[in-house]
Design goal:
The protein is α/β, with parallel strands linked by helices and 313 residues long. Helix content is 37%, strand content 19%. The strands form two sheets. It has a nine-stranded mixed sheet with strand order 3-2-1-4-5-6-11-9-10, with helices on both faces. The structure holds alpha-D-ribofuranose (RIB) and calcium ion. Calcium ion binds at residues 10, 12, 14-15, 40, 126-127, 243.
Length: 313
């Protein structure tokens, strides 16, 4: 049975790998649309990058929408220092020929959820949660219609990556994350605790390069570019690969292990704003609102990435 999904994203090289995995899996996913959000770089660039990724895959049947161009309350913080000025530096992908859809991405999310049966649609989020939160604010009734949200974001034992306390997707729009985590929607979280285990070592990058198709070559060039910052920062054998964990979970959940816990978002404190306060040991008694993925099979994860990328042109 195909899973109907909407992908919300700020591509981003790691977003691109996740999106390509989904586009390579038509027997697993009915992708209802891809919605860009401001995050890694400005919205217009993220949306343009999403169009480039769709065209790279050959899946020009997929529609791309632009969502929110800034967080709900805070000033937008971007990450060109990781992803390059285009947000997708590395390969030299051609300018997209496909146009963005004219409908506002938040309205697309609302209308699609309201038009489908409750429990049919999964939201796969790869960036800040602004679009999802704004959809919940504009039409609260969508909360009982979403099957589940599978999101990349947050951290617990690994701390943060843009501040000592906060992971980038949550930090950019902590208010949106707070709205989503309070929504009552079933949430699966792929935090830094998981994604830091999924390191793109030289051997794994070589496997991607050896795929030998257009998609594999582009992904290799993307990761070689985006790894610079993290290799310098962490001094690990490979840079962590974040967003593909969301699609990998949807394809092979058995690769991952987690615990159902309470997670709340810090939205005010100067030093910890954007922190996912994860009650891993159940000391608060607060409602368990998140399936928190803490570990995974990294070799199986890269096997899956290579297998799916090899299906593309
Ligand atoms: O912290 C990692 C997250 O921030 C990933 O989604 C990456 O694409 C950036 O958006
Ligand atoms: Ca992202």
């Amino acid at each position: 049975m195909k899973r109907k999904i909407i992908i919300d994203t700020d591509p981003g090289q790691d977003d691109a790998v996740a999106i390509l995995m989904a586009l390579a899996s038509p027997e697993d996913f009915e992708i209802l649309g891809i919605v860009a959000v401001a995050g890694n770089v400005a919205l217009a660039q993220n949306a343009r990058n999403a169009l480039k990724i769709v065209e790279l895959s050959g899946r020009t049947d997929i529609k791309v929408y632009a969502g929110c161009e800034r967080p709900m309350r805070r000033t937008l913080v971007t990450a060109e220092y990781v992803h390059g000025d285009t947000g997708l530096d590395g390969p030299n992908l051609p300018a997209p020929t496909q146009q963005l859809e004219s409908q506002f991405g938040v309205d697309f999310i609302i209308d699609t959820l309201m038009e489908h049966e409750a429990g049919e649609i999964t939201l796969a989020t790869l960036g800040p949660l602004t679009n999802i939160a704004m959809a919940l604010v504009k039409q609260p009734r969508i909360a009982e219609r979403v099957k589940e949200i599978v999101m990349m974001g947050g951290g617990c034992f690994e701390g943060g990556n843009i501040t000592p306390a906060a992971e980038f997707n949550i930090y950019v729009d902590p208010d949106a994350a707070d709205v989503v985590l309070r929504s009552g929607i079933h949430i699966v979280m792929a935090p830094l605790d998981l994604t830091h285990q999924m390191q793109s070592t030289p051997a794994r990058l070589e496997r991607i390069k050896a795929i030998g198709n257009r998609a594999g070559d582009a992904v290799h060039a993307m990761l070689i570019f985006s790894e610079r910052f993290d290799l310098q920062k962490y001094q690990w054998p490979g840079a962590p690969l974040h967003d593909p964990c969301v699609i990998a979970y949807l394809l092979k959940p058995e690769l991952f292990h987690g615990r159902h816990i309470n997670v709340v978002i810090e939205t005010a404190s100067e030093h910890t704003i954007g922190m996912t306060v994860a009650d891993y040991w159940g000391v608060t008694g607060r409602v368990k609102n998140v399936q928190f993925l803490r570990s995974g099979d990294a070799d199986g994860f890269y096997d899956l990435i290579c297998e799916r990328l090899s299906r593309l042109p």
